[in-house]
Amino acid sequence: MNDSDGKLIAVIGGGISGMTTALEAAEAGYKVLLVEQEPFLGGRVARNSKYYPKLCPPSCGLEINFKRLARNPDVRVLTMARVASVAGGPGNWELSIRVEPRFVNDKCTACGKCADACETKIPNPFNLGLDQVKGAYLPHPMAYPLRYVLAPKVAAGPDGAKCKAACTCDAVVLDDKPQTIKVNAASVVVATGWKPYDAAKLGHLGYGTVKNVVTNVAMERLASPTGHTGGKIVRPSDGGPITDIAFAQCAGSRDENHLPYCSGVCCMATLKQAVLVREQYPDAKITVHYIDVRAMGKYETFYAKLQQDPKVTFVRGVVAKVSADPATGDPVVESEDSLTGKRSTTKTGMLVLATGIVPAAGKDDCPLPLDRDEFGFVTRRQSKHGLHGAGCASRPNSVAQCVQEATGAALKAIQDLAAR
Ligand SMILES: Cc1cc2nc3c(=O)[nH]c(=O)nc-3n(C[C@H](O)[C@H](O)[C@H](O)COP(=O)(O)OP(=O)(O)OC[C@H]3O[C@@H](n4cnc5c(N)ncnc54)[C@H](O)[C@@H]3O)c2cc1C
Predict the structure, then answer these.
(1) What is the residue range of 148's domain?
(2) What is the pLDDT of residues 230-250, one digit of tens each?
(3) Distance from residue 31's CA to the centre of ligand 1 (Å)
(4) Which of 34, 79, 265 for mutating ligand 1's site (highest number of atoms within 8 Å of CB)?
(5) Rounded distance, CA 323 to CA 333, Å?
(6) Which atom of ligand 1 lies at the shortest distance from residue 83's CA?
(7) For residues 128-148, b (16+ Cβ closer than 10 Å) or e, as one string?
(8) Which of 357, 376, 406 is the last residue before a domain boundary?
(9) Residue 28: inside a domain, yes or no?
(10) Same domain, 204 and 307
């Protein structure tokens, strides 16, 4: 790709938002560089179990975008890459991009012979470290690019040579080094997405101290066919079935001590996860502790349907405290129903914390001179400088809303180029 005429759009972050911006701009005839820090595109959506409201698997939407990318020579994709430094200014942002070594080149056919030869195991990054994977690994079954990665310690150790010997495509490159790529972009779209609020800060909700207390993000992996349980939702402590499960909404969100704002997606994520539990366990008792259920517009039907389930109870009031049952160690949830004023202390088999979401990349991770709000989300104010936010980098949003905003960001970027 030749970006020497300065007509390049750089998109930072290759989740659903970044991919959308990149594709919409490229399909309108513009050159785009898409920079993603992970070895694969798709972001958090790739790790989701199913999408609300239709409950289709993430492969549905992602695959279409991967096909569009594969046939579009105007999008150059850099994975394992981050913006290291920025110079220049509006109209000509000079980006220095550091690309980490993958130790596997594009001759890889994803045959898996390197993984067969590799004995070292590492925590599985795709499954949030909930299980282990070989140190020569395909990030996940539908990864784009469909190419293996060697962990640096594998490449540097005796397993590296075994992987290289096993590879019949000459794809393993043990002396792969970090590279720095410099580009000039007339417009930059930041689509670096979100990360979960640190549940370790929610000690009162038993995270890390009471068994079978998990976050909603971990629950997505539990429910996903590509997850560490093959999609079977089970209690983490003993792998046992779910007979009784509770969800604690606004775990960190709408709380002056943590995140004062609403994280936007957690209510629908919980309603979806309740449905997924019901699909696997027709008799499980499900309790949702909430402040108010934010299921806007067409999502309300999804909520209304779940309300018809006689074994789903909605308790209006935040969870005050979670402790361990002295006999079993299982979570004991203390809450007050703000509609009846009744306090309750209820034992449950598993508790899911609907943890809020925060911006994934601060200025150390993405050193562009972005205007951010008090919580770190990218605002629209710097738009005139050819810098734009898209998707959850700008605010918590569902996939559908992210796609709309990311399409708008593509148009803004095209306007920047037209103004040059
Ligand atoms: C528990 C849970 C369940 C959910 N379920 C649903 C659902 O069913 N349906 C729905 O519509 N929405 C759902 N959502 C919301 C959905 O996950 C988001 O809408 C979506 O992930 C936003 O996409 P994005 O591209 O903006 O961000 P992300 O998915 O976070 O992607 C951002 C990308 O940027 C990359 N990146 C970050 N920093 C850098 C950097 N410095 N340099 C380069 N790359 C970087 C990341 O690696 C990532 O690939 C759910 C959210 C939660 C919390």
Answers:
(1) 113-166
(2) 999 999 999 999 999 999 999
(3) 24
(4) 265
(5) 7
(6) 42
(7) bebeebbbbbbbbebbbbebb
(8) 357
(9) yes
(10) yes
